[in-house]
Amino acid sequence: MAINKKEAFTDTDQHLADLCKAMAHPARIAILRVLAERSTCICGEIVDVMPLAQATVSQHLKELLNAGLIKGTVDGKKSCYCINWETFKNFNLAFNTLSGDMEQAALNQNCC
Are 28 and 52 in contact (CB under 8 A)? Predict the structure, then answer.
């Protein structure tokens, strides 16, 4: 019977990896930047500033939404998205903790 190796890792590490995966595309980073510059944004406005087709932007928005990095509402053809700052606060905490742990471990080693 096959087991999911992902379960061997902590929930914190799994969640951090999921968030990093969701942000691991330059278009998604650009979308996050656009949303951060505005308090809310309608999907069409995002498409206007991106060098991508509407369907592609929608797919990237879906990935960010599924990861919890953005919040959104859909009202017919009109979609409104904004940054989910609570998720970003948790991401920053987890990433900074990881970074600090790694730095501390590196100080205790004499590596190349």
Answer: no
Burial of 42 (0-12, 13-18, 19+ CB in 10 A): middle
pTM of the full structure: 0.84
**DSSP bridge partners of 73:** 80
2 pLDDT exceeds 70?
no
8-state DSSP, 69: S
Contact 60, 47 (CB under 8 A): no
**Residue 20 identity (one-letter amino acid):** C
pLDDT tens digits, 57-106: 999 999 999 999 999 887 777 788 999 999 999 999 999 999 998 888 88
Q: Cα(5)–Cα(104) distance, rounded to whole angstroms?
A: 27
H or E stretch at 82? strand 78-83
The span from the CA of 30 to the CA of 12, in Å, is 26
Residues 6+ apart with CB under 8 A from 36: 83
